Amino acid sequence: MQDAVEIAVEIVREFLDASMKPDPVLAATYMAEDVKITFTGGRAMPSAHEITAFNKSRYSWVKKQLGQFDACDKSDHVVVYSNGTLYGEWLDGRSFSGNRYLDRFEVRDGKITRMDVWNDSAEWILEPAINRD
């Protein structure tokens, strides 16, 4: 039988897989109704649908090369960290890879209740030479 930490990591992994398709309808099924989502720069996102819309405003397409998952049980929820890199294509057609990301999730009662997102995209947009792809 899986413990709470293993279940939470699986929920996050399945959410990320759905997000990368992108399938915001499926991704939303892993999130609580009152989920709190904050992206880099403090951008609040009300739902998985807005994440997809935001990504379309920044990238032609984007995927995650999943790296490591770390998790810890906080008794009433599990915190899951996912790190890795983003790869894809900017709106101007330039490809990119190696764009670091770190996502932090809180999982309660089988649903993601909080998601915080950080990545290098804003820096790479401001300073294209940083992206050496």
Automatic annotation (TrEMBL):
Highest taxon in the source lineage: Bacteria
Organism listed in the record: Marinobacterium lutimaris
The protein's name: SnoaL-like domain-containing protein
InterPro entries assigned: NTF2-like_dom_sf (IPR032710)
